[in-house]
Amino acid sequence: MTDRFWADQLDPGERLLWTGRPKPRVSIRNFQLIGPFVGAAGTVVAGGLLLTYSDLPVAQSVILAVIIALVVISLVRGLNKWSGLTRTRYALTTHRALFFKLEKDQTRVKDFSRSAETKPDIRPTSPPSVFFIRQESMDKAALVAHLGFEYIEDSNSLSALMATSYEGADK
Q: 0.85 exceeded by the pTM?
């Protein structure tokens, strides 16, 4: 993201404070990312056991079709999540938190006012995820989402820029 890009994105008087992107590591803490791949492997193992101990040829073909479908669905879900993270970028300015999704022909941007900032909630992913934007649904007041920057390496430097830092962060 070049200086020209930021000049187009920022409002007059707005300063860029921090930029980052998700950089998840393969770990047990990130099971929501590696879970689909573990699920695909488990499906293959379970299916292999079923096929080994099933005597009916029709049952074997049905089991094989179900195994293939489940493995494909699981792998596609996992790859979509990883792919989405590789195309995501974050920025924090003096006025807004920006979420970018890089696509082939365009960059989609969602921005949230810093007035929606809440006390950060750090999740122990690897690296940490920091959730600090409260978004309420217009039509359903009870529906509230807590948004933030996922899998960021320099969460401490980000926390220092927030109104309220999370516990344990360096100020």
A: no
